[in-house]
Every structure is written in structure tokens, then in C-alpha cells.
Amino acid sequence: MHWAWCAVPTAVLWALSAAAGVPPRWLPMPLLLALLGVLLSVIDFRHRRLPDSLTLPAYPLVGGVLWACGADLGRALAGGLAYFGLHWVVHLTSPASMGGGDVKLSGPLGAVLGAVSWTALPVGAVLASAITLAVSLARPRDGPPHGPGLVGATWLVSLAGG
């Protein structure tokens, strides 16, 4: 993978995060989401999977940044469990529509959404679905990866602050 496929979009998202007026104490969260999100999205587009080597370390990374940002950790934990549970049920009901990597990634992303607000959880879910739909329309020959929608929606919602 050429380094520019990750470096350029990450730099753009970092600049947009800084320009969005995110409170300074919360800014590390959208920066982390941009970094992880670009890397995971490139991998999901190219290989149609989200590897455990990136999804599982997202749990302590996101947890540490939430703690450092002073987020409501109880609400973040509840949000992570709820979002994970929703995606797990979808995966069990229709495994072809959502992979295990998407389910694993939904836990830390739900924690971020929960830290933003309770309303951020359904907003993030709908926005993730809309992004995935847009990707599927742009790439009709391939089944759409859901990872880019998940991380893109969470990054956008995280700009509202935590």
C-alpha cells in the first residue's frame, strides 16, 4: 500500500478536525478516529475485511483517549455495549451483510458516540448506513464495505464534541 493513500486523507481530516472548532480537550478523539478510520477504510476497500490487529487495539486506544478527554466513561461504556450489541444482532441475523470486523469495530466507535451524547448513537447508526449506501452506489459491482461508513459517521459525529 502506498503511504500517500493514508497520509493525505489523514492530514486533510486532521485539518478539518482542527478547523471545526472542536473543544481542545476533545480534539484528540477526532484526530484518533481520522487516523484509525483512514487506515481501516483503505484496508476494508482493498481487502474486504477489518483485521483484528487493528480493531482490537482500538478498544484501549479509544478508552485511553476518552479518559484523557474527560469524557463520561459510564455513558461511553454503555454506548459501546449498545452499539456493539446492535451490530452483533445484525451480524447474527444476516452474516453476509455485516462482517465480524465491523462488529468488533462497533464497540469502540459506540463508546465515542455514547460519550458525545445518547442521541449520537442513533445519529451515528443512520449516518453510517447512509455512507455505506453511498459507497454501494459508487461501487455497484462490489458489495459495500461497512467499515468506512462506521468510522466516517463516528468521526463526523465526534466533531460535535464530547
TrEMBL record:
Pfam families noted in UniProt: Peptidase_A24
Transmembrane residue ranges: 29-46, 58-89, 109-135
Domain Prepilin type IV endopeptidase peptidase: 32-136
Domain of life per record: Bacteria
GO molecular function: aspartic-type endopeptidase activity; methyltransferase activity
A GO cellular component annotation in the UniProt record: plasma membrane
PANTHER family: PREPILIN LEADER PEPTIDASE_N-METHYLTRANSFERASE-RELATED (PTHR30487:SF0), TYPE 4 PREPILIN-LIKE PROTEINS LEADER PEPTIDE-PROCESSING ENZYME (PTHR30487)
This protein's name: Leader peptidase (Prepilin peptidase)/N-methyltransferase
